[in-house]
Amino acid sequence: MSDIAEKKPTTASSSTQHKKDEIDLKGGPFSVLQTAMESRTQVIVRCRFDKMLIGYVRAFDKHFNLLLTQVQEVSNADESETKHRTFNSVVLRGDSVVYVLKLQQTP
């Protein structure tokens, strides 16, 4: 019984935990956001509830929370009517993101 009391709980080292928290920016879905941010290329973000945002990525995190600037929102609330709005900046919660497309840069 004394053996159980003497054992200390094991914890992950800080370097192991840090590796788990890192985002792979060289490949995978985060590479699209990283290259769009570095090259200042517009992205299309498809959101839930038939909304689409077009803007520039300024920041993001591992949960796909996005900070977009110079944003145009296109909303298809009704099948017959499309609404357009413009924002200087938008903070978008990651669970609203369906997909992200990087637009081609114009020469």
From TrEMBL:
It is found in: Cytoplasm, Cytosol; Nucleus. Transmembrane segments: none annotated. Residues 30-106 form the Sm domain. One of its GO terms (molecular function) is RNA binding. This is Small nuclear ribonucleoprotein Sm D2. Its main location: cytoplasm. GO terms for biological process: mRNA processing; RNA splicing. PANTHER family: SMALL NUCLEAR RIBONUCLEOPROTEIN SM D2. Pfam families: LSM (PF01423). It comes from Bodo saltans (Flagellated protozoan). Keywords: Cytoplasm, mRNA processing, mRNA splicing, Nucleus, Ribonucleoprotein. Belongs to the snRNP core protein family. Residues 1-23 are annotated as: Disordered. InterPro entries: LSM_dom_sf, Sm, Sm_D2, Sm_dom_euk/arc. The keyword Hydrolase does not apply. It comes from the Eukaryota. GO terms for cellular component: cytosol; small nuclear ribonucleoprotein complex. SMART domains: Sm. Gene3D superfamilies: 2.30.30.100.
